[in-house]
Amino acid sequence: TQSLALICYDPDAPHSWTHWVIFNLPPNSQGLAENVPQTKRLMNGALQGLNDFHGMGYGGPCPPGGGTHRYYFILYALDVQLSLKAGCTRTLLEHAMQGHILRQCQLMGHFK
Length: 112
What we know:
Elements: E1 3-10, E2 17-25, E3 47-48, E4 69-78, H1 90-97, E5 101-111
Antiparallel strand pairs: 1-2, 1-4, 2-3, 4-5
């Protein structure tokens, strides 16, 4: 594994809503601290992409009224460091990861 990438999204929003895009995390990462700065580059070299709030970094759950929403956090182990720039979209990240995913796992939570 050369890097890790994380995508968080809500498939139950009117269109699949991206809450977080972060990539080029060091492969030996043991987690992310609370309140990750909403900056393009983190101290560990990871880069963050644009979320659907039109901001950088993590945007927490805020479903519109009615019903419970699912929030997926998908972690990818990649065989490369990606050459994408900070501020890229989830779509660009997913395209760049094609053919480079060694493993992936996911955590899904509910929020109402």
